[in-house]
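Notes continue from the previous slide.

Worked example: a multi-chain complex. Inputs as given:
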Amino acid sequence: MHPAIFRTSAETAAFCSQCRRDGKTIGLVPTMGALHEGHLSLVRRAREENDVVVVSIFVNPTQFGPNEDLDKYPRTFENDVALCGSLGTDAIFAPAPADVYPDGYATYIVQERLTAVLCGADRPTHFRGVLTVCCKLFNIIAPTVAYFGQKDYQQTVVIRRMVADLCLPLRIEVCPTVREPDGLAKSSRNRYLSDSERADARCLSRALELARTMIAQGETDAWAVINALKNLIASTKSAKIGYVAVAHPDTLEPVERIEGTVLVALAVTIGGTRLIDNALIEAPTA
Amino acid sequence: MHPAIFRTSAETAAFCSQCRRDGKTIGLVPTMGALHEGHLSLVRRAREENDVVVVSIFVNPTQFGPNEDLDKYPRTFENDVALCGSLGTDAIFAPAPADVYPDGYATYIVQERLTAVLCGADRPTHFRGVLTVCCKLFNIIAPTVAYFGQKDYQQTVVIRRMVADLCLPLRIEVCPTVREPDGLAKSSRNRYLSDSERADARCLSRALELARTMIAQGETDAWAVINALKNLIASTKSAKIGYVAVAHPDTLEPVERIEGTVLVALAVTIGGTRLIDNALIEAPTA
């Protein structure tokens, strides 16, 4: 099946508006392209749960900082279209930057607290860009539900918060992180890694495994977990730690004493490639 | 006719959603209550043009600065409801602040450039509050069209810009400023004025009349107009000038040479009351 390919917001809005008038549900999978198995799991889920599946493919410039990888971010459009088609996607929205941010564009969504921690501390305008483009996609497509991967955990929290705060009329579904056989979380940026960096990148998922083990064995001191994870990661020569955090899964605020479910989240640069991973870990009841 | 009165976003969204499913158009008039003839002109227009009319009445705390008049802002709810009823309003949305900004609320709409000038220069968080609450109202009510008064000219520009930038699916209509017989623009804040201040407040509309006359007589130097208006206003002892500006009607950027249509906009504090007024003035063709 060949998905329809729309290059403008206006065409996309017209298509989706007709779908809604026909009483159809719409599942949206927002992506920056360079699709991997993580994205495809979202498309499959959207296909199972909706009458119409729309995948957006847009490398959103406003979510990249000035010294980040906007220019070299992988673009694999033909392959992305083929993959989406093979999974029964109805429409692909792949706008040019000038369609999303035309001359004179001025409006952004910002968020207090949640966007200032974890990845937001390293990337001060990143979530402003993410929230703005997602708000636009939600308004253009008006999906019944939008699907995001847990790999970008903070992104799912800030988007859920925006949807609740601004009363956006859609549901957000978060799907499990898809991993390589050795545990590395799938990411479009993994293709930046050399063979040796690819091997070193296993330190992220290994650190999360260590956190699981420590917490399962009764460790309740977040600093003990953080220090152990930092030591593990530091033993990989090419790894530079961005952050290792134990945080509340909803507020993202640091947790001191581990109880209930906590978020363990990491950002580690391997060579020149910034990778992130996370796990929601439930402490054993005392 | 008695309008339905909704106190929560959820009830309002349910009512409006049913209206849309029934194929009805919805006209929204967003207000902070203390309704005057300016608001009522918007309600009449909404009534003429739509199947369903919703008036929101909410004194929005986020658009007031820390030293502004949030606490003393006039609240005349019973009278507002009666006025809306007399004009055939179907529903009033009058939420509590905790419904609009519940605990943990974090998301705001901001805008570059347009919100930094004119009233935005004096009131740095004002338009953030206006944009955020309007975006929420638009999402909750999903009106076909929302009506605003030209008296708050900059507000109409930033809201139109937000609607275009975020692809919000509604139309914005701007209705003419309604004035007292002596020219004073209707405003809920006029009731703060003492009798002598009320007389002094005529300097705003007189200044706009002077601008009209000068431009009609061929004045093309914006600074000459601004200086003349400042002199006129300064001759009123109780008046303190906030700004007098000649600006482009869309970008709000200062104009030096007057041609085509220009915005002449004023903010003047009379006693303790900050008043604004404006006019779109077309220069005679050379």
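Summary box: Chain B has two domains: 4-175, 188-279. Chain B touches chain A at residues 9, 13, 104-114, 131-132, 135-136, 139-140, 142, 161-162, 165-169, 251 (CB under 8 Å).
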